[in-house]
Amino acid sequence: xxxxxxxxxxxxxxxxxxxxxxxxxxxxxxxxxxxxxxxxxxxxxxxxxxxxxxxxxxxxxxxxxxxxxxxxxxxxxxxxxxxxxxxxxxxxxxxxxxxxxxxxxxxxxxxxxxxxxxxxxxxxxxxxxxxxxxxxxxxxxxxxxxxxxxxxxxxxxxxxxxxxxxxxxxxxxxxxxxxxxxxxxxxxxxxxxxxxxxxxxx
Length: 202
Prior knowledge:
Blueprint lengths: L1 E2 L27 E3 L5 E3 L15 E7 L8 E3 L7 E6 L4 H8 L11 E5 L2 E2 L2 H9 L4 E7 L18 E5 L7 E6 L3 H8 L14
Antiparallel strand pairs: 1-10, 2-3, 4-9, 5-6, 6-7, 7-8, 7-9, 10-11
Organism: Polarella glacialis
InterPro entries: PDZ
Protein name: PDZ domain-containing protein
């Protein structure tokens, strides 16, 4: 793992550029004088909360036979969760993909975050999968792709450490965030869901 610098092109962390200015319009309170000389102020407008973002989680429940392989190749180098590197067509998951609802298929780049509705780190999830019966229950999180464009400056590093995993073939994994262009992006972006985090893939 090393800090990326030099003449590399802008980093694409697979959106729209979320840098936008927020304009807050404040209305003055309106005072009404009644005959009893009581001052009544207009009630403040109700606070409208932003809707929750749509979930990227997929529940996979399969009853497989003894001869059915699960059919997932996983990147076990990630300590936080289990990225899926490949889905085998002739497998339990392959059959799920052929019959499941639209958008619920399991894909390369998805991550396993729970086994039997129990979360854990990578080693814990692997252990749960090894002791799993023929009734398979996985929670899959769809990866979110977004793009950031950084303006290079000769005196400022990108500020990320990366590592590659040739067996996984899923690009570079961010292993650390340091002071630099990427952390500046995180501080300035108005869309907090587009902040770069450790274990994101480039």
